[in-house]
Every structure is written in structure tokens, then in C-alpha cells.
Design a protein that fits this description.
186 residues; alpha/beta; Dihydrofolate Reductase, subunit A; 6 helices
């Protein structure tokens, strides 16, 4: 049975995007240690899950020459891993190895979790995270907390009505000030 993980960058005040859905702040304090971690993380495999907004951001960057020059290992993983995008409005997913799911996201995720295979990872996609959190379908949350306060933006848990008890299973501080926190759903 597959596990479903969330991997997201957030600020100290809990936002994963600013009010304009911009996440570029998450890539501004990279150093050698951080780049090594992201390369290792990207090479772990799995099935990537996105909402339409995150998919649009990812597909606009990762298949580009600039992405391969800046982060070749990450670009290789992002472009070659299997992906699912959930969208009611998209007509077609054009990114390599991407399947479009237009309806019944919760049921589709339940089905995919019951299959054998690699873990599934949601990146960005706050609406997807909050919906699947409310349905208790996410097994692990991995947050990279950046030493930055945005003041406003979007949280990953907008619309979640129930308390979400989590158990800390790992933490790691990086020299650039980022802190990785990994939690299991209880």
C-alpha cells in the first residue's frame, strides 16, 4: 500500500505562497548544503501529485534549459517522474509522464493509495493538501520552514475544520536557516 506525503516550503508565519501565489522566496537562500539535500530528495522517486496552479508553475520551469542548468538532478527527477494533476478546468496535461484527473479526486487518491508502488508526494497545491487532510488521507507532512515572515498569504490548511494531531518524527536544521520538520498523522 502506498503512502501519501506532503512536501512543502512554508514561512515562519505559516504561509506557503504570498497573496499573489508566488513561491519564489522559497528558492532565494540556497547554498551548497541545501542544493545537495534538494538533489538527494528529488532522486528518491515516487508519484508526484499537483493541483492545477502548482502544475502550471512547475511545467513552466522544470522542462526548461534554465532548470537543467541550475539544478540538473532535480530537473531530471521532476521531468521523468510520473505525475498526476487534479483539475476540473484543464483540457490536457502536456508535461512528460503526466496524467490528468478531472473528477473525484478523493476517490482517485484512495484508489492510488491502495495500489502497490512508490510513495506519492504532493508539492505546493494547498487546495489539494487541505482537501486530502480533511479526508485523513495524508500519512506524512514534511515542511521546510524558511526564516522569513510574509505577513499574509495562503496556508496549506485553509478549510480544514478538524484538529490535526501530528507526531514529530524528524527535524533537521540547515546552515542557510531552513529547518525541515517531518510529522506523521496520528
Amino acid at each position: 500500500m502506498r503512502r501519501l506525503l506532503v512536501f512543502n516550503n512554508i514561512t515562519l508565519d505559516g504561509y506557503f505562497t504570498d497573496t499573489n501565489n508566488d513561491m519564489s522566496w522559497a528558492h532565494k537562500n540556497a547554498d551548497e548544503e541545501w542544493n545537495k539535500f534538494t538533489s538527494e530528495n528529488a532522486s528518491q522517486g515516487g508519484l508526484l501529485l499537483f493541483g492545477r496552479k502548482t502544475y502550471d508553475l512547475m511545467v513552466s520551469f522544470w522542462p526548461t534549459k534554465q532548470a537543467y542548468e541550475m539544478m540538473p538532478t532535480v530537473a531530471e527527477g521532476m521531468n521523468n517522474l510520473p505525475k498526476v494533476v487534479f483539475s476540473r478546468t484543464m483540457e490536457k496535461a502536456t508535461w512528460n509522464n503526466t496524467r490528468l484527473v478531472k473528477d473525484n479526486m478523493v476517490e482517485e487518491v484512495r484508489r492510488m493509495k491502495s495500489e502497490p508502488g512508490d510513495n506519492m508526494v504532493i508539492m505546493g497545491s494547498g487546495t489539494i493538501v487541505s482537501q486530502l487532510t480533511q479526508e485523513h488521507l495524508i500519512d506524512e507532512y514534511q515542511f521546510v520552514v524558511h526564516p522569513l515572515v510574509l505577513g499574509s498569504g495562503r496556508t496549506l490548511f485553509e478549510g480544514v475544520k478538524d484538529q490535526l494531531p501530528l507526531k514529530l518524527i524528524n527535524s533537521r536544521a540547515f546552515g542557510n536557516g531552513n529547518v525541515l520538520l517531518s510529522y506523521l498523522s496520528e
